[in-house]
């Protein structure tokens, strides 16, 4: 029985993906749940697996092609006998085909898989000049990429300095498009404040060992900011809302997106129902998401549906920034590097560990007064973390 392998649902507001890698070619046998194709969106890398045992009979696309939800990626014949049938069909086709001369049959193009073939065609490369490092001298994807990169290195005739031209990855193209779309659609403003980290650092230092021993997870600063943000969101609900047409959707739940680094770049997995989690629950949840991001195991649901986002550029040394809103959200909080600075405290100059905070918000839905009040609320809660416990 022939089975269609289709592009699965990619997640909220995501309809297109790029074929990052094809693992099985026509004629190859596959086992149930074995990976066939790897898809890449602006949010996540997604694996498409075989639904049953069988043999690949047709591939509709090549690596680098764009596909949409529901499109047929490949066809497979179910069952152990499928491989024999495919082989027999191939022999019959070869017998009916006209005889080619030896020069033609030995062309490298006869041995090209879809990935290097696409790269060669897109970059107008001479495949006969590319030395193949694969089996029997075949050109691999890496061989084609190296040739394309070598071609892309040119000399600026004005300055005599080398310039390397490298095609943007599809992931980077989509991210760039969505960020620009955010700037073009939302009326983005950013308000700033600074927070004295003295008390929260002292609290963390005093209890971090006991916390680790009891909860088996380290106590960081992010959990304090998540809890503070939730308290501020409850006080200023517009920051947790979104615009839909001419309506405003006020969300009475708190799914917080937490930006973390991954091999593919910055991703924003979602900590679900954060208001119902303890400090330990928040820390454990963030750790789990960070490990999944590192190992490339984040799923589409992990990355969609956040109501508000927190980004910590301070881990990379950023002192101040203006974060960009992730639509359809209406706000994003930017944390930054903790730096000791002289501050006036009760009429005296003292050295304090200070952090700049930034709130970028959509002015179409959030007024300036609300934005400032929101950020001041977070500042107050972080500077006196006892207020988080007392809910005041």
Short account of what is shown:
With 392 residues, the protein is of the alpha+beta class.
Mind describing the biggest β-sheet?
Answer: 7 strands, mixed
Rg calc: 27 Å
Question: Count the helices. How many?
Answer: 10
The CATH class label of the largest domain is Alpha Beta
**Outline type:** elongated
Please state roughly what percent of the residues sit in beta strands, choosing from under 5%, 5-15%, 15-25%, 25-35%, 35-45% or over 45%.
25-35%
Q: Which regions are unreliable across 5 or more consecutive residues at pLDDT < 50?
A: 97-110, 153-157
Helix share bin: 25-40%
Oligomer kind: single chain
Distance between the termini: 65 Å
Q: What structural category arises from helix and sheet content?
A: alpha+beta
Mean pLDDT: 85
| Number of beta-strand segments | 21
